[in-house]
Q: What sequence folds into this?
């Protein structure tokens, strides 16, 4: 299984700027126009075949609801059975393939993502998920290519982790076998890169996969699948189905060969799936691996020594990029009273400069939220804050879905550190601020730690090293990704391994070696080159 053919050293994909007048901007704009001009019909992919059904569903642009991008073919339990059978049939040949062959396919996919398909995958993400050009670039093109390339490098490093010493006449080795059974990859709407990585990482390690994306991400998921196929992925290795979650789960989680769940999405759904798997544990041949990266209530803690401009710039980027629909988005902020007047005036002034509108207009910072369900959920929090006595909306608060699901970046001020929007994940452009007396910094670190069920990302802004150290110490378990004087979003594969603890997930760090270890099962082989020929030990001799 191991070999000395070292793969290319992974390097992060360069982020293109899409500045006015740049060639990449023109090419992307042409691709946006092209995708808008045609109606795409999107099939499921089972055993390398395109599957069409009677159940056709429309895909609309979240920021331009009158525009239909195409239709997708919705499936049911029968398709899930077919996908499992395809994964099971492909398994034997795929897992026996030398790793270099598997790695080549995903390295080729990375080249397609960052080259030939860059505009298509970015434009698809801009249109169907309402990400602006830069947000699409860092996700669909760069992070996805990084996942694919770094995973190959980590595979090589992992396979080369072998028992350090062999005693005389003994050869010890470890084989990193794929898991038995098939993997179920369940992916969220908000990152095209995650949708591609969740099926790709287990497949790279020799597993076969049934992949179910979120309905609102099917348009770009299809581009991902097209790339995998063009890169040479054999039939049945990754099977893409569009089926209602509980219906898919009803088949998968009752199957004796269910081998693992690779999930990213909300905490509530993940907990539910874990319970279902637990209840069915007697049905399975193996203990399924359960990997889930879930919700967040990500914080910015500001010390009185912080620089106001830096705090404000990072609050805005951290909270409002991609309309706050990042698991890592800053959504609660603790500010010292002494800095509040200057932070407030700068923040309100900057917020007034944020433009909101369609992604095709590159001057817009804010675009639409993903769908009606998200729009209703987010605006309910805003409406409630308008009437609650312990909350005040100091900026934004308006929303309108006439043309698209637009919600103004909204800032809530509260004196109640346990106010609802300081605790619950909203997953939208809503930031709640809580002021604290300067002398109560340490007390508020403890309050922060105890406020929410989540522990995904968080940041401290301070010029005082003692304060930074104190925050690192008290907030040790409050975030799986901790930032010092930086926004809590934008983790880069190969640089800041990403994942949180507590209610935020199993913290297996997507795009890191730790994640790949979950998709293999080690077999230790001890070979004796000098077997004994006499059962007696020397101490038996008198
Ligand atoms: P979601 O939980 O609504 O859906 C995630 C996936 O689960 C979708 O494919 C959905 O169809 C599927 N699903 C839902 N119910 C199911 C069921 N009963 N059985 C099987 N599958 C089911 O999440 P979302 O709205 O797509 O994404 C947003 C959430 O994802 C947020 O909570 C966000 O914090 C989280 N997220 C976390 C990370 C991370 O790395 N921690 C990254 C991105 C998103």
A:
């Amino acid at each position: 299984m191991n070999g000395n053919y070292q793969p290319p050293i992974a390097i992060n994909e360069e982020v293109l700027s899409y500045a006015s007048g740049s060639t990449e901007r023109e090419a992307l704009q042409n691709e946006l126009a092209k995708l808008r001009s045609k109606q795409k019909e999107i099939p499921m992919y089972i055993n390398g075949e395109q599957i069409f059904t009677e159940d056709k569903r429309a895909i609309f642009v979240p920021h331009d609801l009158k525009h239909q991008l195409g239709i997708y073919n919705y499936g049911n339990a029968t398709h899930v059975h077919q996908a499992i059978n395809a994964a099971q049939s492909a398994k034997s040949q795929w897992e026996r393939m030398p790793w270099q062959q598997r790695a080549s396919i995903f390295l080729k996919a990375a080249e397609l993502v960052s080259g030939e398909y860059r505009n298509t995958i970015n434009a698809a993400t801009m249109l169907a998920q309402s990400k602006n050009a830069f947000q699409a670039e860092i996700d669909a093109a760069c992070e996805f290519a990084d996942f694919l390339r770094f995973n190959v490098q980590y595979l090589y490093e992992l396979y080369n982790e072998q028992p350090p010493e062999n005693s005389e006449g003994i050869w010890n080795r470890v084989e990193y076998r794929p898991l038995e059974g098939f993997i179920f990859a369940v992916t969220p709407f908000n990152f095209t890169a995650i949708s591609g990585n969740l099926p790709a990482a287990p497949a790279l390690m020799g597993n076969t996969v049934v992949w179910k994306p979120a309905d609102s991400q099917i348009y770009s998921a299809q581009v991902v699948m097209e790339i995998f196929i063009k890169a040479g992925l054999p039939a049945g290795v990754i099977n893409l189905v569009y089926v209602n979650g509980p219906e898919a789960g009803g088949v998968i989680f009752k199957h004796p060969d269910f081998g693992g769940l690779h999930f990213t999405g909300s905490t509530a759904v993940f907990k539910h799936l874990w319970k279902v798997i637990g209840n069915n544990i007697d049905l399975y041949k193996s203990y399924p691996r359960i990997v889930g990266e879930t919700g967040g209530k990500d914080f910015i803690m500001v010390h009185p020594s912080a620089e106001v401009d830096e705090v404000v710039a990072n609050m805005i980027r951290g909270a409002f990029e991609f309309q706050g629909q990042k698991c890592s988005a800053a959504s609660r902020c603790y500010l010292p009273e002494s800095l509040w007047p200057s932070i407030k005036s700068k923040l309100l002034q900057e917020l007034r400069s944020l433009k909101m509108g369609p992604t095709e207009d590159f001057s817009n910072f804010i675009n639409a939220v993903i769908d009606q369900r998200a729009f209703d959920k987010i605006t309910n929090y805003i409406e409630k804050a308008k009437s609650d006595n312990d909350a005040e909306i100091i900026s934004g608060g308006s929303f309108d879905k006439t043309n698209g699901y637009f919600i103004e970046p909204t800032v809530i001020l509260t004196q109640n550190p346990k106010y609802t929007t300081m605790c619950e994940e909203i997953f939208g452009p809503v930031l709640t601020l809580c002021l604290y007396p300067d002398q109560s910094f340490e007390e508020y670190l403890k309050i922060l730690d105890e406020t929410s069920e989540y522990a995904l990302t968080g940041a401290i802004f301070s010029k005082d090293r003692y304060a930074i150290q104190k925050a690192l110490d008290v907030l040790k378990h409050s975030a799986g990704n901790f930032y010092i004087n930086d926004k809590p979003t934008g983790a880069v594969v190969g640089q800041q391994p990403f994942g949180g603890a507590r209610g935020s997930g199993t913290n297996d760090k997507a795009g890191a070696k730790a994640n790949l270890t979950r998709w293999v099962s080690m077999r230790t082989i001890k070979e004796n080159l000098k077997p004994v020929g006499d059962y007696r030990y020397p101490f038996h001799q008198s």
